[in-house]
Structures are given as structure tokens and as C-alpha cells.
Amino acid sequence: MTSPDDLLAQTLRAEAGPLVARLSRRFGDFDLAEEAVQGAVVEALSSWRRDGPPQRPGAWLQVAADRNAMDGLRLRDRQRALAVRAVAPPVDDERGGTDDRLALLFACCHPALAPDARLALTLRAVVGLTTPQIARAFLVHESTLAQRIVRAKRKIVAAHIALTVPAEADLSERLGDVLAVVYVMFNEGFVSSTGATQDRDLAADAVWLADVVATALPGEAEAWGLAALLTIQHARSRARFSDGDLILLRDQDRTLWDVDAIADGERLIERAASLRRPGPYQLQAAIAAVHATGSSWEETDWLQIALLYDELARFDPSPVVRLNQVVARAQVVGAADALAGLESLAEPLAGYHLFHATRAQLLSDLGRDDEAAHANRRALELTTNDAERRLLTTRLHRRPLDDGT
Amino acid sequence: MKYVLMYTSRPDLAAGADPEAAQLVYKRVYEWFGENAGVMADSGAELLGVETATTVRHGSDGAVVVDGPFNEAKEVIGGFSVIDVADMDAAIAVVKTWPLLEMPGIAVEIRPMVEDYSHMA
Fold this sequence. Notes:
The structure holds 2 protein chains of 2 kinds. Chain A is mainly alpha-helical. Among the domains of chain A are: about 220-300, no CATH class; about 310-405, Serine Threonine Protein Phosphatase 5, Tetratricopeptide repeat (Alpha Horseshoe), CATH 1.25.40.10. Chain A is about 70% helix and about 0% strand. Chain A has helices at about 5-25, 30-50, 55-75, 80-85, 95-110, 115-125, 130-140, 140-160, 170-190, 200-215, 220-235, 235-240, 260-275, 280-295, 300-315, 320-335, 335-340, 355-365, 370-380, 385-395; strands at about 240, 245. In chain A, α1 (about 5-25) packs antiparallel against α2 (about 30-50), α3 runs antiparallel to α4 and α18 runs antiparallel to α19 (about 370-380). Chain A is elongated and about 80 Å long. In chain A, β1 (about 240) and β2 (about 245) form a beta hairpin. The two termini of chain A are about 25 Å apart. Chain B is an alpha+beta fold. Chain B is about 25% helix and about 25% strand. Chain B has a 4-stranded antiparallel sheet with strand order 2-5-1-6. Chain B is flat and about 50 Å long. The interface of A and B includes residues 110, 112, 158, 162 and 166 of A.
């Protein structure tokens, strides 16, 4: 079902990015353009909620953003404002929409910007979220967030970071930065969205953005891989929360999964695989697909998952991937061997709550309940996410449940 | 758009480098300046060692002259160039080919130069 907020969100994210890019070109000032569009988005949220969306939302936003940009320009530079006013605005061409959005996205995810600013700026400029919405999603102070965004925008202007898609030679490296931002956007939404207090579904926005990127760069296998991964994960979203509590994969009501979306995700994996350039997002998508097509936790093809994790660890031997590898192997080789496999990760993951949660599960499977409770407590101390805290608390009081999500 | 490139190094890390390899890299530095002559907006400067630095610092009873560089950081500035290129991506592309980047502790800071003083009037 599409709620009025969903409809608003879809319209804003369709229009905001290309509008920022067009105004940046027209005024030669990204900061001014982005500010003007943000203002228009804020106005749209209150006006459209009150009176319903206008007939042509894109035109409405453009008029509002134009007016804001002129106001902003007048404050800064009266002469230039008059000069710009004298020139008629260019005819709005839809053709540039996708390319514009992609160029804007690459600028917002530029490695010269602070990593924590990239996501915030992307959410505002490309996806059309407001600063308060982003602040709520990340549980940060609005003023802190606003400062971070302002700093990044000023740097884009001052250092001449161009709104362009990188040249072929740099594309795959720079695309990695973009995909990383989209991935984090999804995970933020996936873990923290509890429904009631959110008027934007960050995970849905990330699925949309991943699809935008893959469609715009059809030769990039990892872009399709990420689109596939997020599509499949998102297909399970309705089953992940119950009354605000996080439900783990093992316990999810599989009838709530969106089978059409899972099938879409599998098609996206095939599309990626046809390019014959495997990568970590594609492998994660394949793992997610095996989970999503298993008829139950027990019936899941764990051997296949364990093999895919082995492959993933070759691309990305990070401790977190190796932790997941251990979890998958535990299903194949048993808890005792898996627990031994955890030993080498104890040091690098000492501060990672899911390491301790996994260890707790394995210990509990082996009947070592006191040690399991101790590990669960450690996991609880380390997690900052509300839903995860509640889950771990439940585990401490009930019997521990299982691994990750 | 003009950018100042500040070449920095970590003497503590450079000490461990293989002198022969370093020799080869330095040779490529000269070639690099030749290859990039087209974007160099002026000659820039290579600086003598940080042990020759003198700093004049604000003091409540007037300026104070002290021995040493202006900051205590481990990185020292070895020189700078001014380049004139289209945008930040072009500047990064130039800097990424700086031969010394193969050696540990080497870093190049890119700073846009103020070119338009009209807003300060």
C-alpha cells in the first residue's frame, strides 16, 4: 500500500536531484542551488501534506526552488541577481535527468569529502530528504548535521569539485565510494526503521538509488550486484520487525516476504553475473538470495551459503566477513568447530557486538550457558541501536536465539 | 582553477627507505615535473630541510623568533607547486602520479587558491 508519505517521498526523490543539478549549472553555484531545492522540499512537505500534491509536482518544486535561489542570490550579490534575472531560465529538458542525478551523486560521494558528510549530503541533495529527517534517522543533533552538510557543500564549491561522472579510468574506484554510501544508507534504514516515527523509509530510498545507479551504468556488475542485494534484503523488511522489535531471520514469518521483489532481485543477480566480473556485492546478493529462497531456516542450503562466504572472504577478508563465514560454517560443521574458528577473530572484533552475540549463540548451542550469558552481556554493552539492544536483552532473559539477521 | 600542492613527508619513516629505490624515485620526480609542465602555474619551490626552519610567532610583548617549524606535526613540508587545472578531479589526477607517493609517509595536500577577491571588497 502506498501511503501519502510514500507518494511524497517518491515525488521528491524523483525531482530533487535533477533540480539541484540544473540549478547548479544555471547559477554556477552548487551550494546556492542545493539550499534552494532543500527550501522547496521543506515547503512542499508542509504544503502538499496540507493541500495534497499539486498537478505537476516537478514544476511546483522548480518554481519554488527558482524563487529561493533568486532570493539567496540577492542576499549575496545584488548585481549578479539582476543579471541572472535578465536571462530567461533554460527550457527544462527531461533528457538530462538521469545523467544529472548520477553526476550529482558522484560529487556528493567524492572522496575529498568527509565520509560522514557524504551520506548526509547524498540524502539531502540526491534523495530529497530534509535535514530534520536525516537527523532523526541517524539520531544526531540537527545542528551538528546541518554543519556537516554546510561544510561539505562549501568545499564542493571552494575546491571546484565538479558535478560530473568520472572518466573511465577512475570510474570503478569512484563507483566503489558511491556504492558504499548507498549500502550504508540501506543499512541505516534497515536496522533502525521502526515505522511509527519515520516519514521516510531510508531502506526503500536506498533500493531506489541503487537501481538508479545500475540503470545508468549498465556495464558495472557491482552496481547491479548492490541493486540485487538491497532488493532482496528489502523484500524481507516486513518480517524484520514486530511491534518495534527486531526479528531475526530464523524466526521471521516467511509468508511476509515479498516474493515478487525476491524474484526481481534474482533477475538483477543474473544481470550482474552476465557481465562476468564477480565482486563482493554480487556475492552478498547471492547469499541473500539463498536465504530468501529457503523454505525455512533448517531447509536453507547452508553448504551453498558457506561456499559463497568462502568466495566473499577472498574479495574481502575483513574480520566481519570472516565472522559471517563462521556463522554459516556452524550450520554445516557444527558449533564446536565454529567456536574454534572464532578464536582468531576475538582480538580484531573485541569491540563488535555481533562477535559476542555470535559467540553467545555458539556457546549456548554447546550447553555452556554461563559463558553464553556473559558473552550476551558483552554484546549488549556494545550495541548502540535500540532495536538490537532490545533483542539482546530478550536473549539474556530468555534462551538465546541465534546468529545475525 | 588554481591549486597549491604541498608536498609533505615523514622524516621518521623516510629514514627506513631503501636508498637505491629512493634514488630511482627521485629521478622520476624530475621527469614528473617535465610531464606536468603544462599545468604548473609557476615554478613553485623545493625547500631546504626542516632543521633550517625559523618561525616568527605572535607574542604578547611583540613577535618572538624561534628555531624550528610552525607546528609540531610529524609531517614536514618539503615544497610546493601551483597548478592550474579545470577542477578538483583534474588536480587529484595530477597528484596521484606524484612518484614519491610510492614511499611511506609521503602525502600531498591540495588546497584551492583564492583567486577572486571581489567578495572581500
